[in-house]
Design a protein that fits this description.
Elements (H helix, E strand, L loop, with lengths): L1 H7 L9 E7 L6 H8 L13 E7 L4 E7 L3 H4 L11 E7 L4 H16 L8 E6 L13
Parallel strand pairs: 1-3, 1-4, 4-5
Antiparallel strand pairs: 2-3
Length: 141
């Protein structure tokens, strides 16, 4: 009886804390691939995000609700509209990109770091595509 009672009367597990993050970076930097990998989704058929998407990334002790914002020229000017309520930032850059794209990414990163809704938040800067021959080291980036 004690064993049965322990099983049926235990109640639901305590809720995991949830954190709202924003994921930004230029088109092709690997934001969608990163989130698909974290969600254990198939890497097949990944399409660049136009606009934004939201994914819940489950971890053992927390859930990350990640707003991924598309990185195209015409979309980046709207990024700040999606910053409200964020508790952290993931900035993804293509470490194998051209000097011009790297400079654009640098400018977007500096803009995000100075934005009033983001400047006090933790930032993760991910130098993606380290497996490509043209990839720069973290120090170079």
């Amino acid at each position: 009886w004690q064993c049965f009672r322990a099983l049926c009367c235990k109640g639901p597990p305590p809720p995991r804390p949830e954190y709202d993050l924003v994921c930004i970076g230029l088109t092709g930097s690997g934001k969608t691939s990163l989130l698909s990998q974290l969600c254990s989704e198939s890497p097949e058929n990944i399409v660049s995000t136009t606009g934004f998407s939201i994914k819940a990334v489950p971890f053992q002790n927390a859930i990350l609700n990640v707003k991924e914002l598309g990185g195209a020229d015409n979309i980046r000017k709207y990024w700040s509209r999606y910053y409200q309520g964020s508790q952290g930032v993931i900035f993804v850059l293509d470490s194998a990109s051209s000097e011009e794209d790297l400079e654009t990414a640098r400018n977007e990163l500096h803009s995000a770091l100075q934005h009033p809704q983001l400047c006090t938040l933790p930032f993760l800067i991910l130098a993606n595509h380290q497996d490509k021959p043209a990839a720069r080291s973290v120090q170079e980036v």
